[in-house]
Amino acid sequence: MVSQYVLDAVVYASLFGLMAVGLTLTYLTTKVPNFAYGSFVTIGGYTSFSVFRINHVNPYFAVPLAFLLGAVVSVAMYLGVLRTLARRGSSLVALMISTLAIDIAFVGIFGIYSDYIGSFYRIENTKNFFRLLADFSLFGLPGLFYVTPISLATITIALFLFLTRTKFGIAMRASVENPSLARVLGIDVERAYVFAWFLAGGFAATAGSFSVLWLQGGTTFGSGLIVEIFAASVLGGLASVYGAALGGLIIGATEILLTQAGIAVFGSWISIYQKGFPLLIMVITLLLFPRGLVSINWQRITSPIAAFVDLIGDRLGEIFRFVRGK
User: Fold this and answer.
1) pTM of the full predicted structure?
2) CB distance 30 to 90 below 8 Å
3) Helix, strand or coil for residue 123?
4) Are strands 141-142 and 137-138 parallel, antiparallel or unpaired?
5) How far apart, in whole angstroms, are the C-alpha atoms of residue 48 and residue 54?
6) Is 141 helix (H, G, I), strand (E, B) or coil?
7) Contacts of 264 (CB under 8 A, 6+ apart)
8) In this predicted model, what pLDDT tens digit does every residue of 215-232 receive, in sequence order?
9) Sign of the CA dihedral 225, 112, 66, 31?
């Protein structure tokens, strides 16, 4: 049997990888830290909750709907607020504060929605609800143990192929890296930005729809995860969606494993500091690599290891030939 700690680490890491990819996409386009991003996660959580509790449909079938709702709300936020303020000359600080205000507004909207479905459909605990007991089991393990890492890997590979093998994907990369030059070349930069926000909101809501099968949900569910999401994105370098996926895996897994190790050594009281572990990991990494994981010269690290492996292989081959000659 797989340890519960391993299950938590795999699922948690995969969810944060998926969330961090979307947050990085929003930052690449606007260069504004999006503090409302957690609310996109909450949209996905309430979509699964509503489909399951009202229509009695398995939450996995709500994933496409969650993706679409999160994507549409994300685009509406970009077009209606951020782009409008930016065109009126608002500063970066003003744009950042506007995302925080939007997140506060979203919490109020979720509160109204939870009151509505609670009173109209007579559902209890709509503002804060326990995880949905609707996951399937395969080989004695919960379905999310398979679904979340496969989803993260699929989305990351699909993004890589899209950004490197399609004309629109290459145009999107150009729009992000040098929007002025992209406009000169005739690229519709705004359309690329809108599509990036569409994907970002969809990824966040997808992660949220999965999360309520594993974690407790509620009106502030996604907002409460924003620290870990930002830590994962910053750890990945804030400029690479692939680095964000890796950063999410590291933050999610180490948060669970360090917390459990701390509980084993110091007692259960250490769990109140669980949110601090991602920040600690991020700070240590940035002290060593200021630009995040993407600044690491992996070839410089792996070359000595490969040379050592080749050396061991040569020596073992010589020993084998010597013994065989005997």
Assistant:
1) 0.88
2) no
3) coil
4) antiparallel
5) 10
6) strand
7) none
8) 999 999 999 999 899 999
9) negative
Question: Three-state SS for 199?
Answer: helix
Instruction: Tell me the three state secondary structure of residue 1.
Output: coil
Q: How confident is the model at residue 154, as a pLDDT?
A: 95
CA–CA gap between residue 80 and residue 82 (Å, rounded): 7
Q: Which of 193, 178, 206, 182 is nearest to 67 (CA)?
A: 206
Query: What letters, b where the CB count within 10 A reaches 16 and e where it falls short, cover 69-100?
Result: bbbebbbebbeebbbeebeeebeeeebbebbe
Rounded distance between C-alpha atoms, residue 33 and residue 20, angstroms: 12
Q: Are 209 and 62 in contact (CB under 8 A)?
A: yes
Q: Compute the distance between CA of residue 68 and CA of residue 278 in angstroms, rounded to an integer.
A: 30
Q: Where are the beta strands (DSSP E) in 260-308?
A: none
Contact 95, 85 (CB under 8 A): yes
Place of tokens 């601090």: 276
What one-letter code names the amino acid at 9? A
Domain 4-295 annotated CATH 1.10.10: no
C-alpha neighbours within 13 Å on the C-beta side of residue 91? 3
Q: How far is CA 272 from CA 139, 211, 214, in A?
A: 33, 20, 19
Question: 10 Å Cβ neighbour count for 137?
Answer: 9
Residue 128 β-bridge partners: 218
The number of helix segments (H) and strand segments (E) in the chain equals 13, 4
Give me the residues of the chain with pLDDT under 50, please: none
For 36-161, where are the E strands, in sequence order? Answer: 128-129, 137-138, 141-142
